[in-house]
Amino acid sequence: MELALRGLRRYPKTTALAVLTVAIGLAASMTTLALLHMLSADPLPGRSQHLYLAWVDAVEAKSQTFTSLDGVTTYDYKRLKMPDAEALLAAHKGTLQTVVADLDARVEGSNGQHFNEQLLATGSDFISMFGVALRDGRSWTVAEDAARAPIAVIDSGLAQKLFGTPRAVGRVVQIKNHAFRVIGVSQPYSPQPHFYGLNAWAFGGDSQESIFVPYGAAVDAGLASSSTDGCDDATDKGKRFIAVDPLHCEWLAYWVQLGTPQDVAAYRSFLDHYAQQQTSLGSYGKKPQSQLLSVQQWLTLQNVIPDNVRLNVWLAGSFLVLCMVNVAGLLAAKFMRRSVEVGIRRALGASRRAVMLHHLFEAGMVCFLGGALAWPLTLLGLALLRMQDQGFTDLARLDVAMFAALFALALGVGALVGLLPSWRVSMVQPGLQVKSA
Hints:
alpha+beta; 11 strands; elongated; transmembrane helix; transmembrane
């Protein structure tokens, strides 16, 4: 270690160039890796492994006419018509189950102020299934769901805007000129990615649902979805897309909580059986179809992580390899300048192993210093990413795991770039070097 420290100081310009080259390569790689790490993180740690998206094809329409109401080819967000969703809810085959649909709504408080907010029409199990933290009050019950009660849970931010205080239980909010009584106040809730409503957004720093209401009450208030996966042929396709028919169009995503692999297998069989019961689809040339997808399978199927993020990781990784090759060359030139010194050490009894370890330590120190310099450069790169408005760049952060990964990568790079130069200098013939000295 002492020899390695002395070696760093002997050729300061070469050392500084090697450290800077390593730092730039590490910073480029860690900037892109940190963003990929945040985008691919588990949206609900401890919960998502038990959540599944259930889907059954029950649209009575031929495949070629299976389009949304505005005539654009349908998206495939695996949503259900309201009667099918309610039939699955009534069967109650999962531990918990709920439907979800993101809607836009004009919300007005008692002070007359109004805001356009993102509203989630959902079922009574959503709060407990998806881990929404209640700050005050309660969620609604299954009975209130069935009664289509005009009640709501709002987050503390909206409560503050509407009423000037987060303590809003018992207050009344007007949603599209319909009165909804607030029964609960939640903490702001925004899992990333927004896996249960990808049709609304995938990643969004400021986008979040600020109000939750029973889906039946939302329909009664005229808050049906403005987007759909497809509609029955009986639906008037000439209508604009803002007139989605909740009974004949697919607009509700259905999520179920299952505890064990046996529960998953049993629920998949239940879905298959339900799909086979849709005998009316035969006249439209459609075979029974059903799917049960885990959160990770769903995110992979929807290709949630943008392709350019993965491409940038590969490009930055290639740039790091190029930097490593250059640093290896610098270290080799630096080490071979000491051939005479190494030859004398070998003649005095130093083993090849000792010589190689000394130079490996020195290479490791160069890359560790490069990692230390790469830390602020990585933070700068992430700050520059956050300045770009691409819908997901606001998630560019360096967490504890990626901070540790930065220095682990720096030490790994040090071992790799130092291996060949260290081996080369350890092979110096002591006799020739002493003679030349």
